[in-house]
Amino acid sequence: xxxxxxxxxxxxxxxxxxxxxxxxxxxxxxxxxxxxxxxxxxxxxxxxxxxxxxxxxxxxxxxxxxxxxxxxxxxxxxxxxxxxxxxxxxxxxxxxxxxxxxxxxxxxxxxxxxxxxxxxxxxxxxxxxxxxxxxxxxxxxxxxxxxxxxxxxxxxxxxxxxxxxxxxxxxxxxxxxxxxxxxxxxxxxxxxxxxxxxxxxxxxxxxxxxxxxxxxxxxxxxxxxxxxxxxxxxxxxxxxxxxxxxxxxxxxxxxxxxxxxxxxxxxxxxxxxxxxxxxxxxxxxxxxxxxxxxxxxxxxxxxxxxxxxxxxxxxxxxxxxxxxxxxxxxxxxxxxxxxx
Length: 340
Hints:
By secondary structure, the chain is of the alpha/beta class. 39% of the residues lie in helices and 16% in strands. The chain is built from 13 helices and 13 strands. The strands form two sheets. The protein has a seven-stranded parallel beta sheet. Helix 1 crosses helix 13 (325-339) and helix 9 packs across helix 12 (313-320). The chain is globular. The N and C termini lie close together (10 Å).
């Protein structure tokens, strides 16, 4: 099968990943190739060349006040190239509205995996085009599917995200500190996690890009000290190294997260997770792999962390095997084959 994969083009699909969407796109493309399919990844030009990248822009224009115009031009160029090629199917993972609008009249199936909440332009494009003959939507969780239901109608399916279990091996050998990793922005709730760790008097290590520098300066910097250590923006090897001594990985998100790939990466490493009942969190865990806070408060999160720490690493890992990268990729390929 020849697959055109459209990425979100603002950031490279390469390590260290800025977020879950970049990690998802990279691992899925790798798995498509392993399964014997041909792909072209339409992405930021600094993306991993092993993924047969077709990049239009790199970092040029990204800081331009009129960047949105350049971004529209970029997606128009991508779509024109796809039209002039002989792909069997398009897998759209961008968060831009143009690929969705284009799919309304596309002559081959276009499968869009929706990774963001119903925001204005994308929401409008999905609602307008949801009845297109070649338009199909995938959501990464049942909870997220329900949020998008008013816009996709019945034209959506769920395929859970997955991680490469070989790249995230069982690693936990001690319970020395709590760990958090991800994009450092207000919605991810790192400040809540830091407060819960302080309440328990357990050291916390955290890592990730400072995507909201104002939030980092005002809410995170004042909380850094003897019990909280910032490790910078780590690649996967660096994250895995810190799984070895992690008592638990903690989630304090303030939004209805579509999936939460970091939770599965932690579980695959044998590290239990604790978090709020937001978004897909409750879909990902069972009693052997993590705990859900009873309320969305610092104290309730601290109690959930205490319950998570004793969980057995092998059982945690076993739960993560439900969400393997191979299972996810095969799910997409089966879906594509049924459409074709």
